[in-house]
Amino acid sequence: MIRYAIFGAASLCAVVIIPAAAALPAFAVDNMETTDAPDLTSVRAKIDAKDYQGALAELRDLAEDHQQADVYNLLGFTLRKTGDFKTSLTYYTKALELQPDHKGAREYLGELYVETGNMDKAKEQLATLKQLCPSGCEELEDLQKAIDDKAATTKAAN
């Protein structure tokens, strides 16, 4: 009899609590536990096609509704590719505020520093990636290559 009472109480809780929880508003999108990340497939396709203006337009629309690290990281990347380094830095910084361990933002920020000649800051991002990827990762390899290429170019010029 007690077993049925417990089962009945649990069933009642499930019937009352689950629908009520579903009706509650979703957490803010800067909560990294959320699964409310936007679909960036179209943006990535535009970036791959080097359609940076098209990607920027779509990303700016997404940024109005989604405060999310991937959106800000791709905004930073796209702006960097169009030569707007100052605004690019702002978006990489925002991405890392939301998600400090975002490897893509670390790589791209490091590449921004390489492009602007701030090698010390680029190496700081490299050091952070080494901590995030102790066994190595693509982001670490790409930033290391950018730093090495810049060093070789600088050495050849001198």
UniProtKB/TrEMBL annotation:
Residues 1-28 form the signal peptide. InterPro entries: TPR-like_helical_dom_sf, TPR_rpt. TPR repeats lie at residues 69-102. Keywords: Signal, TPR repeat. SUPFAM superfamilies: TPR-like. Gene3D superfamilies: Tetratricopeptide repeat domain. It comes from the Bacteria. It holds the Pfam family TPR_19. This is Tetratricopeptide repeat protein. It comes from Rhizobium mayense. The lineage of its organism: Bacteria, Pseudomonadati, Pseudomonadota, Alphaproteobacteria, Hyphomicrobiales.
